[in-house]
Design goal:
The structure is a homotetramer. Chain A is α+β, with helices and mostly antiparallel strands and about 350 residues long. Chain A has 7 helices and 18 strands.
Chain lengths: ~350, ~350, ~350, ~350
């Protein structure tokens, strides 16, 4: 049971609402004696932080992380790391007008049906604000992974589809990703994407996105079949992100269209190393890493909060209409990039620890 | 930690290898006083059973389930239900010739890297034979769900894409699904699919598939945010099935291409009932069921065991070639239908129990 | 895996060190729509709070609880309740002189052996300061239990043995317990205990204690055999408290000396109610509550921090001596009373939720 | 949640009823490449096996273990080890006469209250027959521990109190324990114990026992504070055994009577080794092993099935009387020795794996 906890050995528990005083997370099971600082974590936080361009929500949050426990004289002690982030730019009044209505596409209706009570201020717990905590946990996981696996280990994500706009993946350039407000890996697509997203926003609508993730430097042998497979846990970790509706590992849904020959990535030994001639498996076979790059992608649905009027019902069960004003991302998928990187990092560290538990 | 256990309250643990004496599962947390018999379970087993048509492996297994505990005088007692299925048609000699080689696309290489030992007979534990146990657990889950939710509850799956062949979903007919060897819901596609799959098999290759699942009669309120969301657990349950590489909930990966308006399924009250005007969410909002049908789909990669020769390496790290003879499904995706149904049933029951734990 | 988390459905995770900025806990799985306030929790906190008499440590902590999430407009929302307690009276300098030495009886040596690093300020994470968080979680559990079970439900604890001093249990009076600084249920023993404990403190030593707990109004049927038995979880919950070395259920260790006749508490039906003629079982049979009072007791060893000089080694492995100055309880067992009550409350609520999950 | 599963990484799940066709367990998370055979396990099984002397039940069970999975060519593969033990000497008719009555001291009443159904044949799932599975799992754990820690690792248990009869612990001799039917470590007590237990049995009654356990060769550093402390898990593991009512670690309940000086086992470095001058802590400080011997003891209540007539009620709630005939141990505590050893072994292995997960 783990309603608000993720992971098995390296575990994090998140808490807090969009418009409460603060949000935070407890990281448990972190290996001891790892050098870590608030600054290390902040770097990742800043990648997810809202209000950095006109393409994200204008809510201004510094998302400053404060470590309250588990780190002593700059090093992890092996005890729980408590991280708190204060909410500083709340505007709960934005939600007064819709507090009796269920925003379609949001979880207003389902939270109310489940709990018989809901925090209407910015969606309360259902808000994607919770994901800031995941990024903090992911930053810790990445630091530990680099400490154990060395610098060859890396996790990188990018937006490869912005609504109807794709990018040219043959132009993929890792260095380009952080240079544009879309985490787009193809420099040539950026201008078009700007135009497109501005148009979407002006029209009072929103759009979805596809994010691709790649982890390199992951050793073979991680993943615990049958029900803690590496791909199972990656799928769960990504599907748990707000607004995600689909997850692929390697060729993903397109696997259905491959031939048996294409699908079975051939194996070669060359210069003393095991090499695969393709990577349709996304680096995972039978739920265990093969030493290839781990490849995963996921789709984020369009922001549900849109200006254009939609039909809905209110708490009393009466038909009504709604137009969601306030500050919203025209495409929440963009800020899902650092979240996806964080979740993948947490899963990989968790499996590394699990592997050394059973296999030494 | 749950290497070989699935679920949180309604849990099942599976054991056994493809060519060992038997396989089985222990179901724990099952509500007491539910009428259940081996016959009820057998019906579902027979849907997954191999050797029933020329389109599946010719291994002949009766897959007869025997209940060893947890049922007294025809009723569940609330204690563990142990189910055993003997392996009766093993041909381990089929694997002698390839016991030193890693079959590409299979988990031979990764199991060996992880554990330093592997059972080469039919893949041992990595074999999809394990999924027979899931179907048994799913049959129990379905029986309990019908007992609690009534007859309106149902889970149904179908193959909607067989390799390159799609079907016409506007012809979907539930009753058609079990009448053809492909679990195809569109009668008109069956003949073409037969031709196609025979050709694939004759060519020494294999193909993938997409399976769609629908659960109806599921009440609103199931699903425990943030890290036990209903969609998170469905994604994990399906991704854990052998050869699955992609999972969609509702519009899934296609969510990226929707407009904000399309995405936010509008809500109406009519004739005293809450109705949604569309179901792009697949019946799940914020990880909680909305009362709509639960819609999920998943892609199964082509069978990795193919006659056509592929390059690989052996245990000593030498380059070699492999052609996998023996008895294999030309499309393992077909038999994934009852497995998907079983996993979805287990997740739904687990969440129903979880919900009544927290919310009464 | 739950290094810093307790419970299965109603779960709490604690964090923080004795001399860090704060300590706290996250309560997950709490039923929604329960009225709760910081004031309700504070009442229990005050029972454990140090510095209230000359018989406890003179560290002055207000132990003021602040709820940061999970409660909206005075009611639980079903989402994580985050509670923070700031440390206000730290005196880390007290520990400078012993920071290289391992205090015998404490976990200094074992933490260092395990993690290769330790927070020497007041023992860091090993400090019983952590138990303040348990009391907060227990206060929430008790509130929920009273909401579900009604006012007949109650948990009460008392010290029945203070070092070498017993009390006369035939004088047990619930109302007396909170009127003296020892939580002693026998008014007549209080004066003697005062003299005794002052003498112990003056001598530079410390003493142990036995605490007895009683839960009334617990329905029959709670407890999940085989490995989540009610008594198993009570034993674990109490043994996890700092300095506890023994746990009894009902007759406990003395069960060894009973006859078969005495042991098997006879059952009678009278005035329409099931009554037991004795309660050696402590209200639990086969791990399941019988409807009788739940009876548990536990022993707390003497405070390990004593003035009298003891032999030990330092971090470099050299033999040395130690005398622990600073502020310490002469008998930590006293303040274990509210902690024991809290743990028992958490276990009972957890099992009540588990029971309604499986058995409706 | 783990109704019928014990452990965190090294986990076992048991199933089966006293009078069903078989009982068994699934061991998950076992390290791979460990040499193990049915014979190794059988040796421990035979220690617990009934019918070996006139001082235990006359039910004749060979308790022959059969490994169904997880071992390939004599070695563990890292996948689930399924063990089955057939019930061969059932006499369900013995229970016909009492099937409507609740045996006092047994869990008949509580199982019925919880589940609304119970298997009356020998108590069904509540029977101590389940503990045979624990011994099998413990034998696997011990084998793995010896493989990792070397021959210096050992777990040994003995009965030190048989009803009212104590033994002289200063005569403790490990080699004596398996030479008498009581697992008594003091040769001189055996004759007296024989007389005593025969008298107890003849009188139609039964008696309790205290069992002491000692694990040697356990490295410092095992145990995961706060809620997976080594002593917490040992307490849980022992309290989960049928009829156990009290658990002590080290000085246990007697800790209450120690002085602060006695309690804080002094530490010395001599001949390059860390030595403690006493072991009141039972080898555990702050929930972490210190490198000393692990010492635990537990009390088993008298057998509840006795010939002498007791008052009780039946399923209809009517007052009645009961005298339990059939085959029963006059002191179930005796056969608890190998069970205690098994549980302690499982906990130690589990913590060793957990430790290497977090701390490498």
């Amino acid at each position: 049971m783990s309603f608000n906890t993720f992971g098995k050995i390296f575990r994090f528990t998140t808490w807090g609402e969009s418009h409460g005083p603060a949000i935070g997370c407890i990281i448990d099971g972190c290996p001891p004696n790892i050098t870590i600082s608030e600054k290390d974590i902040q770097k990742d936080m800043d990648k997810r932080r809202p209000g950095q361009s006109k393409f994200t929500t204008q809510r201004k949050e510094s998302d400053k992380v404060i470590i309250l426990s588990g780190v002593f004289q700059g090093k992890t002690t092996g005890t729980p790391i408590s991280i708190i982030i204060y909410n500083t730019d709340k505007r709960s009044r934005d939600y007064e007008s819709i507090k009796e209505k269920f925003r379609p596409g949001h979880a207003d209706y389902t939270y109310f049906k489940k709990y018989g009570i809901r925090d209407f201020r910015g969606g309360g717990r259902q808000s994607a604000r919770e994901t800031a905590c995941r990024v903090a946990a992911g930053a810790v996981a990445k630091t530990v992974l680099k400490n154990i696996l060395g610098k060859k280990f890396n996790v990188i994500g990018a937006v490869t589809q912005l609504g109807l706009m794709s990018c040219d993946k043959s132009n993929w350039n890792d260095k380009e990703i952080n240079k544009n407000p879309f985490f787009c890996p193809d420099k040539k697509s950026v201008k078009l994407w700007e135009k497109y997203l501005l148009a979407v926003r002006k029209s009072g609508s929103s759009c979805g996105a596809i994010i691709e993730l790649r982890a390199s430097g992951v050793p073979a042998g991680l993943g615990a079949p049958i029900y803690s497979k590496l791909d199972t846990d990656i799928a769960a970790s990504l599907m748990s992100i707000n607004a995600v509706k689909g997850v692929n590992i390697g060729a993903g849904m397109n696997s259905a269209f491959l031939t048996g020959e294409e699908n079975s990535d051939e194996i070669r030994k060359s210069s003393g190393k095991v090499k695969f001639k393709s990577n349709n498996a996304g680096g995972i076979l039978g739920g265990i890493s093969s030493g290839q790059n781990i490849l995963a992608s996921f789709a984020v649905k369009p922001t549900s909060s849109i200006l254009n009027t939609r039909e809905t019902i209110n708490k009393k069960g009466k038909n009504t209409k709604i137009s969601v004003k306030g500050r919203h991302d025209p495409c929440v998928g963009i800020r899902a990039v650092p979240i996806g990187e964080a979740m993948l990092s947490c899963v990989l560290l968790d499996h590394l620890l699990m592997h050394r538990a059973q296999c030494g």
